[in-house]
């Protein structure tokens, strides 16, 4: 598929089904793109679709099957949108750091494809607001889903879920007081199962 050059072509791209419950259009919205008038369109739609399908099929669909509704807060960014966001301090990393991350249509430095979506898991919100424990979702994903990187944010414990061909398995939090790395390969808590970390949450839903 060529990069869309017309509204109709963009409409066709949006209708591409990535998985049972997700279409490409679900991932193309960007507040930066909307407010500043920058088209958020992949240069390489085929690569973006391939990476998005793996993210949806291997991470988002299982997450929704277990916990119900999820909301997509941020997902695909074109190189132009991401560069603008980075240069204007709009919470976007450098383009190179986002290849195979939010920039789905570029491979990372290892040549692997990948895709990121920032999502809110609605079933976590009451538990998180009552306890502050975002870690329950983090450890459930760690035990059950193939992910490369998770980043948690304070508002509703939204999480960047990154799927990549070459996975690391790092979990990072921007939520005080436990900011920083929760786990990554080499840390003592990385291996094994972590049911005790999310048992209380699951018992309440």
Itemize the secondary structure elements and their pairings.
Elements: H1 7-14, H2 31-36, H3 45-67, E1 70-74, H4 79-87, H5 95-98, E2 114-121, H6 125-131, H7 135-144, E3 149-152, E4 159-164, E5 170-173, E6 180-183, H8 195-203
Parallel strand pairs: 3-5
Antiparallel strand pairs: 1-2, 2-4, 3-4, 5-6
Helix pairs in contact: 7-8
Low-confidence parts: none
Instruction: Describe the sheet with the most strands.
Output: 6 strands, mixed
For the biggest β-sheet, the strand order reads: 1-2-4-3-5-6
Query: What percent of the residues sit in helical stretches (DSSP H or I)?
Result: 25-40%
Give me the Rg, rounded. 17 Å
Quick overview of this protein structure:
With 205 residues, this protein is α+β, with helices and mostly antiparallel strands.
Please provide a written account of the structure.
- The chain has 205 residues and is of the alpha+beta class.
- The protein has one domain.
- It contains eight helices and six strands, in the order H-H-H-E-H-H-E-H-H-E-E-E-E-H.
- The protein has helices at residues 7-14, 31-36, 45-67, 79-87, 95-98, 125-131, 135-144, 195-203, and strands spanning 70-74, 114-121, 149-152, 159-164, 170-173, 180-183.
- Strands 1-2-4-3-5-6 form a six-stranded mixed sheet.
- A hairpin with a 6-residue loop joins strand 3 and strand 4 (159-164).
- Helix 7 (135-144) crosses helix 8.
